[in-house]
Automatic annotation (TrEMBL):
Listed GO CC annotations: plasma membrane
Alphabetical UniProt keywords: Cell membrane, Membrane, Olfaction, Receptor, Sensory transduction, Transducer, Transmembrane, Transmembrane helix
InterPro entries: 7tm6_olfct_rcpt
Name the UniProt record assigns to this protein: Uncharacterized protein
Membrane topology reported for the UniProt record: Multi-pass membrane protein
Gene Ontology MF, one: odorant binding
Source species, domain of life: Eukaryota
Subcellular location: Cell membrane
Biological processes annotated in GO: signal transduction
Signal peptide: none
């Protein structure tokens, strides 16, 4: 089920990621161009960069939580006394534990996975852009 969902949403996340990256770079560039001026355009660009960062954090944080929780699923089932249950329930839980050995990840196209590592890479890219723009 998760693989089917990931196949359906993979390209939606890719398009969303591409558009957000483009918007982030454009608003960051406009913000840097008007860095010494304090006008409504600078305020708009600053707030838009902030909104894009918060939105990216929100999506990547929850995708990371999905990955972390899926890794903990097998150990959580194992530690809850599954061996005292009836045979059919034991078999079902063992099957769930076997299947949950692979962690769940949300793809961005075929490029990368959503998560906090990607969010940090985006922030580092923005910081690098700011540093090199000021030279």
């Amino acid at each position: 089920f998760v693989e089917e969902l990931n196949d359906c949403l993979r390209w939606c996340f890719f398009i969303d990621f591409t558009v957000k990256s483009y918007n982030f770079s454009q608003f960051l560039y406009a913000l840097l161009k008007s860095a010494n001026k304090m006008n409504i355009e600078s305020l708009f660009n600053c707030s838009k960069v902030f909104v894009i960062i918060v939105e990216n954090w929100y999506i990547n944080y929850h995708a990371n939580e999905l990955t972390v929780m899926s890794k903990k699923l097998a150990s959580s089932i194992f530690s809850n006394g599954w061996y005292d249950l009836d045979e059919s329930t034991k078999k079902s839980l063992i099957l769930i534990m076997i299947r949950s050995q692979r962690s769940l990840k949300i793809d961005i196209g075929t490029i990368y996975f959503l998560g906090t590592k990607l969010f940090i890479k985006i922030l580092k890219g923005g910081y690098t852009f700011i540093v090199f723009y000021n030279f």
